[in-house]
Amino acid sequence: MAKNNETAATVRVRLVKGLRGVQSRHRLSVKALGLNKLNDVRELKDSPQVRGLINTVYYLVRVEE
């Protein structure tokens, strides 16, 4: 199979606030994004599912596009 040279749209997400005192559902959303420690950065595929997780924890993360 031939690979397509086009790069898929990605979004960089950084955890900017700690998880103390945060709802457990929001902790799980941060974990699903792959963020563990403060200032962790992940580059994720830009999809509606990822955008939904980001919107859930908008006050904990920063999107760096």
From TrEMBL:
InterPro entries assigned: Ribo_uL30_ferredoxin-like_sf, Ribosomal_uL30_bac-type, Ribosomal_uL30_ferredoxin-like
Domain Large ribosomal subunit protein uL30-like ferredoxin-like fold residue range list: 11-61
Sorted UniProt keywords: Ribonucleoprotein, Ribosomal protein
GO cellular component: ribosome
The keyword Ribonucleoprotein appears for this protein: yes
Gene3D superfamilies membership: Ribosomal protein L30, ferredoxin-like fold domain
Family, per entry: Belongs to the universal ribosomal protein uL30 family.
Subunit relationships: Part of the 50S ribosomal subunit.
Name the UniProt record assigns to this protein: Large ribosomal subunit protein uL30
Lineage of the species this protein comes from: Bacteria, Pseudomonadati, Pseudomonadota, Gammaproteobacteria, Lysobacterales
